[in-house]
Amino acid sequence: MYNVPQHIDNNKVFxxxxxxxxxxxxxxxxxxxxxxxxxxxxxVRLKDVLLCKPQYGASESGFPRxxxxxxxxxxxxxxxxxxxxxxxxxxxxxxxxxxxYILGEKDILIARSGATVGKAxxxxxxxxxxxxxxxxxxxxxxxxxxxxxxxFTYTQLNPYKEWVNAIQRPSGQPNIxxxxxxxxxxxxxxxxxxxxxxxxxxxxxLRKKQKESEAQQLLDSIDxxxxxxxxxxxxxxxxxxxxxxxxxxxSELEERLDPTVYKDGVKLCSNNxxxxxxxxxxxxxxxxxxxxxxxxxPISFIPMESIDEIYSEVSKLxxxxxxxxxxxxxxxxxxxxxxxxxxxxxxxxxxxxxxxTNGLGxxxxxxxxxxxxxxRLAIEYLHVILHxxxxxxxxxxxxxxxxxxxxxxxxxxxxxxxPLPPKDKQIxxxxxxxxxxxxxxxLQEEGKVLLEEAKRKVESMIIG
Length: 464
Hints:
single chain; alpha+beta; four-stranded antiparallel beta sheet; globular
């Protein structure tokens, strides 16, 4: 019998017995079938555990919900990589809502096309009605045959993801239809064993959620720490009639004349340190960054999606040259990048450019670039100040442009009141904030590891 030489990767070149070939003939499907062939439990098709035929969702256009009383439109973008949605976010709704698209407890939704094909979600009761969008397919499980939570758990495991990768049509828009989903074969233990598996995963999700909650508490503490260190007490927002009618001195008027800027905007006026205009200590969009450099000089490229909005850092640097930088925002090592466009700005997309190739970079045209004028300002300190939630909320009052493409004007930054403690105090504040973020990040990673370990254990319990 012929054997594949040991130096060849048997995930790329492998031998199949003729008896192993059934249905699809492509190699990826053959590898998946081989993996689950000797699973510890008999396999059943998804079709055989359904209560009714799968259903495609509504084709309505969504728009933002204005209150939690409105029905919520569940779309692919609402579902994260673990099959969860955030109930803290308002999400979207739609104008026309048909009863046939209203979700029931433990209905399973699976994405049918695009980059997220195969992504799954199991619905849990909410204090409002939920209905689902057309790029999702609903599957209702017959609970006499299988636990919906078990079927959902299987969609979170690597074997399922390998099946999705094998069966999807590799066109410009990957797609899996309802018939193909119904052909999915799932190892199915008895109900009692399914419950053991579901409980194990549920426990891991709860521990992950606890880690994430601890991380969020740390992140939420940052603004309070900064305000206390700078001796700033933010005014309480009052909405009574007396405070909705107010006077503004002419000398206080800046670029904007809309009342909300002066009524709801927050100025960080320190009682402990000097207060200066940001433009007096930093350049906003400095010029001449690439002056005198050869056009073939390798540099870094930072698109908007490479900025982590939670931890305010660059997740990935790409490569380009000065010749290709035309039309992009230019910056150099140590500059602060701050998103100007909605929703990136209010979400907190900002970062200090670090480890740039040849100390130079270019990126999204939706970045403001800031650079200290002299030694009075530490860029790390300016970064943590401009990332504060109250600062971003005030910046939103300075939005201009059409809906969906609104941007903060540079005048907001140039006229921004910046508390300026001594340089060593600035660095102390920035370092403390960095430490908090790293602790939060570690907790997030611990949560991910807990869940992945549980998934590996469950996969071993099912596949062997």
